[in-house]
Design brief:
Layout (H helix, E strand, L loop, with lengths): L1 H18 L5 H8 L2 H9 L5 H32 L1 H25 L7 H17 L19 H19 L5 H7 L3 H15 L5 H35 L1 H20 L11 H25 L1
Length: 296
């Protein structure tokens, strides 16, 4: 029972991370120590169904609960206390980087070679450059969901597929990818619409509009996770140092991308917010380092 509760809470934390563009659910999974267990559970589900369900079901339930229950709270914190909130997340990422970097150095062949250094550098560069694309406007405004046709629903499926592949990689935010592809406002609007629909379940038009977005998105997410975890596990078996090098670079790149995000400073910067933010950063870094050191 204790393990089920821990997995549920882990899922809740990942769900909160996935609400925020720029925060990687994969990174949070690494910090909390169940990332590689998740990869194994998805890829080898049939080999031990009971064991893997014991991990996956509470994780997914926690994620779903968190997205529905805490979306409003996260929006409030980012709106009114953006700098301390984002510095906490950045601290969590920074704390795990030395441990992942050590795993990269110690895995596979001894020491780093030039190609591994290049992999780290390219991974940092890719995310750093991607951070400058974040200002793209939504392709379709949330207010016109009712006008979405089959063609755009197919695009939403594609967006979910790509976002889920990103979700699996530590350092890459699935919601950040949705934002880049222009569907993030649609998704957040549809999620918030669930609570409205629950207050009036006879509103079939609202339910249809929600399903137009979250239906193809959900199918795309499942397809993306299933395709990516199999590929990732094969690469981890054959090229562990390369994969850990890429993950290290993605984590470093995500830190730059977060600092480069105007949303970090949107609620204002003052000596008090900086002081609180520094404390939050230190607490986040210490927490993730201690958890990662113990579990990875």
């Amino acid at each position: 029972m204790l393990m089920l509760m821990r997995n549920f809470i882990n899922g809740m934390v990942v769900g909160i991370a996935e609400i925020i563009p720029g925060i990687s659910g994969g990174t949070v999974a690494v910090i909390l120590g169940f990332y590689f267990d998740f990869i194994e559970a998805v890829n080898h589900f049939r080999e031990n169904i009971k064991k893997h369900l014991f991990l996956l079901l509470p994780l997914l339930a926690g994620m779903a609960f968190s997205i529905l229950a805490f979306g409003t709270l996260i929006d409030y914190l980012l709106l009114h206390h953006s700098l301390p909130t984002m510095l906490l997340f950045i601290g969590l990422i920074m704390g795990i980087i030395p441990i992942i970097f050590t795993k990269a150095k110690d895995s596979g062949t001894k020491g780093f070679k030039l190609r591994h250094v290049l992999m780290i550098a390219i991974s940092i560069l890719v995310l750093a450059l991607a951070s400058y694309l974040k200002s793209q406007e939504a392709v379709v405004a949330a207010e016109v969901i009712s006008g979405i046709g089959p063609g755009y629903m197919a695009f939403i499926f594609f967006a979910g597929w790509i976002a889920a592949m990103a979700l699996v990689l530590p350092g890459v935010s699935g919601s950040f990818v949705l934002l880049l592809l222009g569907v993030y406002p649609l998704v957040t609007h549809s999620i918030s619409g669930i609570n409205d629909w629950l207050g009036n379940i006879s509103d079939t038009e609202k339910l249809l509009n929600i399903c137009k977005v979250l239906g193809p998105l959900g199918i795309g997410v499942v397809a993306g996770v299933l395709s990516m975890v199999k590929l990732l596990e094969k690469f981890l078996e054959k090229y562990p140092k390369s994969i850990y090098s890429v993950i290290s670079g993605l984590l470093l790149g995500s830190v730059y991308a977060l600092f480069n995000d105007p949303a970090v400073y949107s609620s204002g910067v003052s000596p008090l917010t900086i002081a609180i933010g520094v404390a939050a950063f230190a607490a986040g870094a210490a927490t993730s380092f201690l958890l990662g050191k113990r579990r990875l």
